[in-house]
Amino acid sequence: MMDRDAGKALAAGAAVAEVTDGMLVGLGTGSTAAHVIRLLGARVAQGLRITAVATSRASAAQAEGVGIRVLDFADVPRVDLTIDGADQIDARLFAIKGAGGAMLREKVVAAASDRMVVIADRSKRVAAIGDAPVPVEILPFARAALLAALGEGAVLRMRDGAPYVTDNGNQIVDCRFDLADPAATAAWLDGIPGVLGHGLFLTEVDAAYIAADGVVSRLERATMSR
Ligand SMILES: O=C[C@H](O)[C@H](O)[C@H](O)COP(=O)(O)O
């Protein structure tokens, strides 16, 4: 665990090095993104001038706590650079996100970003995304119908004996999909009324910093268009 956390911090440091004066930075959510916020806060204390938007209330609170000025994303048309974690990432820069429940805000912020970078310790790096639940944010009004539509293995996420509620006031269904064709699965999910978001990030990620054995490697989507 210590080793994984050291990897998260190392990857975060590599990505934070991309942040320069004047940027509007998108802050991800989760234990890896928390390192980014901590490191950015330290740089802000040393004089770095940035503003930020956060992909969750938790990240906004952490950022404000370390002196980063957080804007309301509702007022922000474009973001320069977003740095976020992932549950799985592969060489195609396909990612599964949302174990922390923030994937809908994470995706809209990523989509509004000129550059989106995923940071991860080696445990997240996989040959091909698939062996992890895909979180799907649903309209609670349609819960039973959507659980049925999402198929076998779809499980309503619970917390403290009640359905988990996202920052958006919705619920999450964790799904097990055959991801032989991730784009087809994403398109299918995008077409289901009442599905408000999901954790398949297939086009949003521009680069990934992966830490393993004290070394960070970078994967870059150099030639593919977004
Ligand atoms: O909803 C949560 C996010 O997608 C996280 O970025 C993802 O779950 C990775 O979180 P962690 O860095 O805590 O493993």
From TrEMBL:
<feature type="active site" description="Proton acceptor">
    <location>
        <position position="106"/>
    </location>
</feature>
<dbReference type="Pfam" id="PF06026">
    <property type="entry name" value="Rib_5-P_isom_A"/>
</dbReference>
<feature type="binding site">
    <location>
        <begin position="84"/>
        <end position="87"/>
    </location>
    <ligand>
        <name>substrate</name>
    </ligand>
</feature>
<dbReference type="InterPro" id="IPR004788">
    <property type="entry name" value="Ribose5P_isomerase_type_A"/>
</dbReference>
<dbReference type="GO" id="GO:0004751">
    <property type="term" value="F:ribose-5-phosphate isomerase activity"/>
</dbReference>
<dbReference type="InterPro" id="IPR037171">
    <property type="entry name" value="NagB/RpiA_transferase-like"/>
</dbReference>
<dbReference type="GO" id="GO:0009052">
    <property type="term" value="P:pentose-phosphate shunt, non-oxidative branch"/>
</dbReference>
<comment type="subunit">
    <text>Homodimer.</text>
</comment>
<comment type="pathway">
    <text>Carbohydrate degradation; pentose phosphate pathway; D-ribose 5-phosphate from D-ribulose 5-phosphate (non-oxidative stage): step 1/1.</text>
</comment>
<dbReference type="InterPro" id="IPR020672">
    <property type="entry name" value="Ribose5P_isomerase_typA_subgr"/>
</dbReference>
<dbReference type="GO" id="GO:0006014">
    <property type="term" value="P:D-ribose metabolic process"/>
</dbReference>
<keyword id="KW-0413">Isomerase</keyword>
<feature type="binding site">
    <location>
        <begin position="29"/>
        <end position="32"/>
    </location>
    <ligand>
        <name>substrate</name>
    </ligand>
</feature>
<comment type="similarity">
    <text>Belongs to the ribose 5-phosphate isomerase family.</text>
</comment>
<comment type="function">
    <text>Catalyzes the reversible conversion of ribose-5-phosphate to ribulose 5-phosphate.</text>
</comment>
<feature type="binding site">
    <location>
        <begin position="97"/>
        <end position="100"/>
    </location>
    <ligand>
        <name>substrate</name>
    </ligand>
</feature>
<dbReference type="GO" id="GO:0005829">
    <property type="term" value="C:cytosol"/>
</dbReference>
<feature type="binding site">
    <location>
        <position position="124"/>
    </location>
    <ligand>
        <name>substrate</name>
    </ligand>
</feature>
<protein>
    <recommendedName>
        <fullName>Ribose-5-phosphate isomerase A</fullName>
        <ecNumber>5.3.1.6</ecNumber>
    </recommendedName>
</protein>
